[in-house]
Amino acid sequence: MSGRAVATVVLCGAAFATLAGCSDTPAPAPATKTVTVPPTTSSSSVTPVTGSTSGGSPSSSTTVSRVFDPRTMQADVRKILTETYQVRDVGEVLCPANQTVKDGSTFTCTAQVGGEGKTVTITVTGDDGRYEVGAPS
């Protein structure tokens, strides 16, 4: 191949690379990860709660609902943020108490990341105590 042919190929390649970078298509948004957490077997993260009437005594049709243990969930969320999402400088994580184990329900925890409060969405993925931990926002 002649020197002129090589120069033409190089210039065409450079032009193509430049044009490929000038696409009208926006770059895709970064993918968000969700992590499904199985129920904890040691020091269970799910606690049974017995319903009662407003007088404080159990009703004749006592219902038992299960709720997540916020302390266990807070530790799990912190671990997932640091190990799976690789978020640095994760401080205190606070999750609300009395969150019912009900498939499809959602609630949020708050995590201190670099001294700033971030919201972490929790989505319950089954009645067995599994849940997804969303990326902090």
Distance between the termini: 56 Å
In the predicted model, the low-confidence regions spanning at least 5 consecutive residues are: 5-23, 25-34, 40-44, 47-60
Globular, elongated, flat, extended or rod-shaped: what is the shape?
elongated
Strand content: 25-35%
Order of helices and strands: HEEEHEEEE
Helix content: 10-25%
**Largest sheet, strands/sense/barrel:** 5 strands, antiparallel
Average pLDDT: 72
Strand pairing plus helix content: what structural class?
alpha+beta
Strand order of the largest sheet: 1-7-6-5-4
Please report the number of helical segments: 2
Number of domains: 1
Q: Got a strand count? A: 7
What is the gyration radius calculated from CA atoms? 25 Å
Short account of what is shown:
This protein has 137 residues and is α+β, with helices and mostly antiparallel strands. It has 2 helices and 7 strands; from the N terminus they run αβββαββββ. The protein has helices spanning 3-20, 70-83; strands spanning 35-37, 46-50, 64-68, 90-94, 106-113, 116-124, 131-133.
